[in-house]
Amino acid sequence: MCLNIAFPLLALYLLKNTITPFNRKFYAPLVEDYKTKHPIKKYFIVIVLTKRLLMSWAIVFFYHVPSLQNLVPWVLNILSICLFLYLKPHKRNAFNIINLVMDCSFLGIHSVIMLYCWDEAEIFSLSKDTKINIGYIIISLCLISIVIKLVILIQEEIRLIWKFIQKKRGKIEKKRPGIN
Questions:
Q1: What pLDDT, on a 0 to 100 scale, did the predictor assign at position 16?
Q2: CB 76, CB 51: distance < 8 Å
Q3: Which residue, 67, 77, 88, 157, is the most exposed by fewest CB within 10 angstroms?
Q4: What are phi and psi of 34, to 5 degrees?
Q5: What span, in angstroms and rounded, lies between the C-alpha atoms of 2 and 43?
């Protein structure tokens, strides 16, 4: 819990006071692939860490109120989706798509979990088969989001490896100018 509070504050401090154009590569894991020249996009990692902080607080503090425990991440995912659609904080569009897919899948998961919360609160009653089907929907959404994320990440890794190979080929060809 202490680290959840410390990380957004530490990230905000580092981004605001420490990172300069000269040492930006040293802090690259902190800014990931975010556009650092934009005043809001530069601090997007702070927004993401604060979202995680609020989600974990909801799990802990609203333990005895499952509807509210689920509603907080649901609202935070909607806000996160809106921010990603509006700001598009990543330099590469693939990472924007990954984050949108993940937030949309979490929104779907929390929406379906809300049915369990309503059943528990006796707002309406779900049959045993419906509960099993809801469980399959949750598992399917998790698997779909993982597969999409893996495919996009593998595609990005292949792109980086291909770029590295082309760069190495260019250096080798520059060393041997007489061979064509």
A1: 80
A2: yes
A3: 157
A4: -75, 150
A5: 21
CA–CA separation, 108 and 137 (whole Å): 9
Angle, to 10 degrees, between the axis of helix 44-61 and the axis of helix 66-87?
170
Residue 172: per-residue pLDDT: 66
Task: State if pTM tops 0.85.
Answer: no
Task: Report how far residue 118's alpha carbon sits from residue 126's, in angstroms, rounded to the nearest whole number.
Answer: 9
Query: Which pLDDT score is estimated for 73?
Result: 93
pLDDT of residue 175: 63
Beta strands in the chain (DSSP E): none
Give me the phi and psi of 38, to 5 degrees please: -80, 135
Burial 4-26 (b: 16+ CB within 10 A, else e): beebbeebeeebeeebeeeeeee
pLDDT of residue 1: 67
The pair of three-digit structure tokens given for residue 24, joined into one six-digit string: 């930006």
Cα–chain center distance at 127: 34
Residue 177's pLDDT is 58
Q: Please identify every stretch of the chain with a pLDDT value under 70, giving residue numbers as ranges.
A: 1, 19-24, 27-31, 172-180
First and final C-alpha spacing in the chain: 61
Tokens of 129: 């088969």
Residues 104, 115 contacting (CB under 8 angstroms): no
State the residue for tokens 């520059």: 174
Q: Token digits for 86? A: 């509006």
Q: What is the C-alpha separation between 22 and 154, in angstroms, rounded?
A: 30
